Amino acid sequence: MSSTWMTTRAWLLMLPLLAIMIAVIGWPMADTVRLSFTDAKLVGLGGRFVGFDNYVKMLTSGNFQRALYATTWFAVVSVTAEMVIGVLAALLLNQRFYGRAVLRALLILPWALPTVVNATLWRLIYNPEYGALNAALTQIGLLDSYRSWLGEPGTAMTALILADCWKNFPLVALIALAALQAVPRDITSAALVDGAGPFARFRFVVLPYLAGPLMVALVLRTIEAFKVFDIIWVMTRGGPANSTRTLSILVYQEAFSFQRAGSGASLALVVTLIVTVLAVGYGLLVRRAAGSAA
Amino acid sequence: MSTLTIDAIRKSYGAIETLKGINIDLASGEFLVLLGASGCGKSTLLNIIAGLAEPTSGDIRIDGRSIVGMHPKDRDIAMVFQSYALYPNLTVHRNIGFGLEMRKVGAAERDRAVHETARLLQIETLLERKPAQLSGGQRQRVAIGRALVRNPKIFLFDEPLSNLDAKLRMEMRTELKRLHQLTKTTVVYVTHDQIEAMTLATRIAVMRNGRIEQLGTPEEIYNRPATLYVATFVGAPPMNLLAATAQAGRVTVDGTGIALALPGLEAVPAGRRLVLGVRPEAVGQAGEGIGFSARCEVAELTGPERIVTASVGGQRIVAALPAAARVEAGDDVTLHVDPASFHVFDAETEARLN
Question: Which region is the signal sequence (chain B) (predicted)?
Answer without folding.
Answer: none
